[in-house]
Each structure stands twice: as C-alpha cells, then as structure tokens.
Amino acid sequence: MSHDPFDSHRDDPIRQADKADAQEPVPAVEPVTIDVVSDVVCPWCYVGKRRLDKALEMQPETPVVVRWRPFQLDPTIPAGGHDRKEYMTRKFGDRLAEVHARLVEIGREEDIPFAFDAIRRSPNTLDAHRLIRWSWTWGVQGALVESLFSAFFVEGLDIGDLEVLADRAALVGMDREEAADFLRSAEAAPEVQREIEQAQQVGVQGVPFFIFAGRYAASGAQPADVLAGAIAQAFTAGEADEE
C-alpha cells in the first residue's frame, strides 16, 4: 500500500502530489477539493471541522474531496509532551479558565463536549500528523481526524503516545499492526515537515485554515454558512473553467 495520500485529480495547492500507480476513473463532474490546514490539539480546529461537516450537509449536490493538512501550534514540545496544566498556565496565565469556559460554550453549540480538565499531557503532534497523512490511503482520513480530536479533547488521551495512535487507527478501520509499524518508523516525517513549511510560505499563520479548490481561502473556524458559500463559489468557478 502506498503511503503517499495526496493522489488527486486536481493539482495540490500546497504541493504537487505524487501520482499513485493505480489511476482512478475521472469523475463526470470535477469535485471541489477542500484542503484543511489543522492541528489536532487546536480546539478551534475541532470546532472548524464540525462547522465544515455542517457546510457539507448544506451542499449535498456538490461533489467534494476533503484533505487534512498538517500544522503544529508548538513544534518545540518534546516527544514525551508536557504536563498539560503547567504548559497551559504558562501560556495563558490567569486567562485560562475564561478561555476554556468560552470554548466549552461554543463546543456545546457544535455537539463537542470539551473536557479540558481530563487532559493530562500536551503532546507533540508530529506522529499524529504522520498517521493522518497515511490514513488517506485507507480512505478514512476524515474519520481518523474526528477520532483524534475526540480522543484528546473529550477523552483526555495522550495522542502523542504511539499506542494510543495505533488504537485510534484501528477504531476507524485501519490495520492496527500496520499502523503501529508505520508509527514506529520515521516514515512521512520529512513530508509532514515540508507541508507545514509550505503552508506557512503560502500565508497560513493560524489554524484552522481552509483552501477551496486552490482558489479561495478562509481563516479560522468560520460559520457553516460561510464555508458552504465558499464551497458553492469554488464549484461554480470550476464549472466555468470547464465550459
């Protein structure tokens, strides 16, 4: 199985995809490719995913391909992570309770039961991003991203732990042993690092960041109707190009 996930009909707006050996049939209508630059320890990215899910429901007739791209809010975190309480207190100080309270309220609107008190470690997310990248080849990338968000923000699991990551891979239908072997290797680490650098080079400074068909961009956890409008606009522009 190839570990390069970004085989698509449309050129990649962040980097040119390598082509897979097997060629998929070209669809009758070109889908709108949505690249979501995100980090799995970013609560606003979880909110953004839920709002994107709603936006897709608002555009049921529009063919869409969603691809999840890596970003690290803090790449300096060591492999073993940091104590969560100490790390967040250093980062937010006396504002931490207020920040969490606001996110809990917003999460409730998106059916996300944020449980910040359950989180014990702030992990380095490089391995999680490697797994997300590889999961494209299994056809479960979106499901894995959702599972990792839930693992961290709802269940309080350490998603920097390779065993936890392998478990989450199995939950969404990936082979656990293959996932564990992949995670124990360094495979895809250079590609993930390169994509993070390239995202920054094209202007991504915060996440979530949405790129629609390489044409339009939206920064932040925009409301579902805004994202739905961008999807429709990108699809209309693509149809015009084909005429």
TrEMBL record:
Residues 1-22 have a biased composition (Basic and acidic residues). Residues 1-26 are annotated as: Disordered. Pfam families: DSBA. InterPro entries: DSBA-like_thioredoxin_dom (IPR001853), Thioredoxin-like_sf (IPR036249). SUPFAM superfamilies: Thioredoxin-like. CDD domains: DsbA_FrnE. Residues 33-232 form the DSBA-like thioredoxin domain. This is DsbA family oxidoreductase. It comes from the Bacteria. GO terms for molecular function: oxidoreductase activity.
